[in-house]
Write a structure and sequence with these properties.
single chain, 18-stranded mixed β-sheet
Length: 539
Amino acid sequence: MKYSDWLLTAGERGNRSTRLDRRHPDGAAWTRGNDVRPLVHGAAYFGELLRGVRAQRAGDLLLFTDWRGDPDERLDGAGTEIIDVLGEAAARGVIVKGLVWRSHLDKFQFSESENRHLGEELEEAGAECLLDMRVRPGGSHHQKLVVLRHPGRADLDVAYIGGIDLCHSRNDDASHHGDPQTVPFASAYGPRPPWHDVQLAIRGPAVGDLEANFRERWEDPSPLSRSPLVRLRELVHREDTEADALPLQLPDPEPRGSHTVQVLRTYPNRLLRGYPFAPDGERSIARSYLKALRRARSLIYLEDQYLWSPNVVGFFARALRANPGLRLIAVIPTVPEQDGRITLPMNLVGRVTALDRLRRAGGDRVAVYGLENDVGTPVYVHAKVCVIDDVWASVGSDNVNLRSWTHDSELNCVVLDDGADGRPPRDPGGLGDDARRFARDLRLELSCEHVGGGGGPYPSSATDDLCDPARAFDAFAASAAALDAWHEGGRQGRRPPGRLRAYRPPDMSRLTRSLAMPPYRLLVDPDGRPARLRRRNAY
């Protein structure tokens, strides 16, 4: 089997203008010899990030992109506020550069004021943080990336990529009691919403690809916003709108592990003048999913914030119809993140329609779950993880919905695990295959927490059951059934282990009637975007 059986070639990326693939001497669209570790939960990521930033010194480089940034979010207790940690790094002579989505108005429950404050405070501290609105109408910059480079100390170079923003509500751990610093959220999640998320720590040559992704956006000469009102405010407030030059990019770190990494993105096809590095947009995340799904034979394991676009889940449904032995486990939020007369029914209709399409294709081979903590509060699933056949693992910022595949900017990494001989992984076979460790171990780590509860360690018997796709599917079902029965029986006796609850869709008839009335029918599709924008995008 070749790497190109699972990964996109440069031609399949569909974007000849990016430097990502051209920068590799062998012309490959991926890098080998990386060391990749999953960081499950914001507390694990924030703690490691804090140590890495504090170890940087004058002349080192810190680059980050984010959807939302809260200056006062604490990475690890008092005195570790993001603005202080990054500001202290800049004061030591670290070159700190950031790109944060400018966002829409706060009344739409985005993060316009928080991102502006983060940018202003970083500028005062000697860093440079630009508020970037170079998106399609209604879109966002959703990439979540931090790159730490160290001239002369390449062994410390690392990139962090995944679903975790540098903002409130993300700093939770395996106990899932929530971040004390919260964002406004649906009431079902309580005053401190429990939060489940995943980030990757990547060391090795792929760090250079992720830095190149940042540089493409940073060096884009287009104005940060096309809005006349925004540009007027930039002038009045004398906001920084010109990106200072970055130092020349260092050579990629040397190989240090056994993981092959492919960097994938979504960029929309912007109206009028597009991105110089993606003039017609880029859909490599969607294309990568489609290629991997065609190879799926045993188990698709998915954790996703949304899973609500019928058009996107249609490709998962196609794989289920084509392969009678294929199963799908999906872990999603029990309740959408926003209460409200508009957003709640819109989100639920999209999700229920998408899940119905999956179940019609796979029947009882499709299982969908929510999570709760040990006191019964739902856990908000913000992770964006997909593992196919314990070979192909994708982690990043994209959700399984149309926005992430066509309209917002997104950043993902697909990871394959080389065998001891350096060859790509074999197709699903023996469970002891060393060539499948990363994807399998990622799935097992997540599965053990959901089935067993807490942060482990877990008995070998539990991991043995979860290794086999069929037994894992049954173990999820049994765990959820036990917890559901305990709740239905009045929560009498000892609570069963685990966090899984079977996802039960709401009554569709009332929601459908709501969305059949103006203005919903005219303004939105089930993916939450104006229908006219959906029609202009293709995979």
